[in-house]
Amino acid sequence: MPPDLLLTDAHAHLADDRLAQDLPGLLDECRRQDVGRILCNAAERRQWAAVTELSRQRGVFGALGIHPLFIGQWDDKTPAALEQAFRTAPPDAKLVAVGEVGLDAWDEPLRQTLPLQREALAAQLLLAQRLGLAVACHNRKTWHDFFGVLKDLRLTHLRGLCHHFGGSREILRAVLEHGLCVSFCGPAAHPSALRLREAIAYTPLEAILTETDCPDLPPPQAQSAQSRPWHVRHVLQTIADIHHLTLGQAAAIVRQNFEKTFVR
Fold first, then answer.
1. Which CATH code fits 7-262?
2. 87, 128, 213, 223: which could join 133 in a potential S-S bond, CB 3.0 to 4.6 Å?
């Protein structure tokens, strides 16, 4: 891969237990595969320290937060603990976002926790605003609630991304109006993923990002049970094809979008 065609993985979970055994080798392979930027997200509190340490690596940036799937970890002391984690990070730690945060109503047990999810999301969005950080947002079957939280907080603008985006044009319009980018991962590279490909087609290039959600959601081209950051190339190729760009042009656009969103 030419040196000017650096890949960007705007949403990965390098602190996931499934990657722990070979994480040094994974990071070495990222460099060999020219992955120039990775945003590493924490999903739960016990990952904050690991993500902070990973963000000290070249090309790796960090996001700390509580994912809605781990909402059981949220209590009255969590906001202060999260803020402390950001404020006490080493000077060379590149913690640039609060994430992964959001709402999830995939099944009935999760729907039952939506009031607490909304509380946690609101607190984490306000923390991002207070610390001048971006946000990495997760929304699954919860767009109405998500925009409701923003309205309640009177937040008209957010810097960050909505990851694994697959919403309608109306949702995309609302996301963009709030200043967020949208990010696409492995499933978008599947030839039959018509809804995702339509979303890519109507996403403005200045608001588009690529991700893997590593180690989940591998693209079919990778022929792998898990995704890795360099698999983002297949998502990038899909975006390039849909928007009639070369791979290099698409890579440059995505990298620029990542820089303006997260690297300050």
1. 3.20.20.140
2. 128
